[in-house]
Amino acid sequence: MEASPMDADYSSSLPFAKWRSDTSRHFQHFLDRSTPHPVGRWLGTLAIASIYALRCYLIQGFYIVSYGLGIYLLNLLIGFLSPVVDPEMEGLDGASLPTRGSDEFKPFIRRLPEFKFWYSITKAFCVAFVMTFFSVFDVPVFWPILLFYWVVLFFLTMKRQIQHMIKYKYVPFSRGKQKYTGKKASGSSTLPKD
After folding, report:
1. Longest Cα pair distance anywhere in the chain, in angstroms?
2. Is 25 exposed, middle or buried (0-12, 13-18, 19+ CB in 10 A)?
3. What is the separation of C-alpha 17 from the centre of its chain, rounded to a whole number of angstroms?
4. 3-state DSSP call for residue 145?
5. What pLDDT, in 10s, does the model give residues 8-57?
6. Has this prediction a pTM greater than 0.85?
7. Residues 62-93 as b or e (16 or more Cβ within 10 Å = b)
8. CB 56 within 8 A of CB 134
9. Using an 8 Å Cβ cutoff, are 71 and 152 in contact?
10. What is the CA radius of gyration of the chain?
11. How far apart are CA 64 and CA 116, in angstroms?
């Protein structure tokens, strides 16, 4: 029986598939081990961002890449600050955030969880850093205009997001698990005596 050319291609790609599977498994193991360490993860991302910023500063270029990175990071931030169920769109079906004190407590669930937020930011900085090694991405542009436009876009977007947060009374940040303190004492015992 003769070996077909398809069998030869399959057998030559088998070591690559095994290497890819092993690499993917090791990388996922690294991610799983880093999950309970948010401070270390964010410090690592800060180091990567600093290296990227230093490279762009020393080269004096790649402003379009930085602008695209800034727009992408702004998009991620909006997802991080937004609830998974938008009360503006889904308010009629009963799955909205509580707006009155008598409503049932529903915890804030982000559209983009913290881990995915961190992972996406880190990947974005790594991709942008790799792009700085290719001159095709170094488009000559007057960078102060891009910076001004990004700052205006940031403030307008954040203003809209904060107004949304105020309107629907949700805060996307918490300081850990809330503890029940019991019933508060009556108001007459807390008044100072003259």
Report:
1. 107
2. exposed
3. 30
4. helix
5. 555 567 888 888 999 999 989 998 998 899 999 999 999 999 999 999 99
6. no
7. bbbbbbbbbeebeebbbbbbbbebebeeeeee
8. no
9. no
10. 25
11. 25
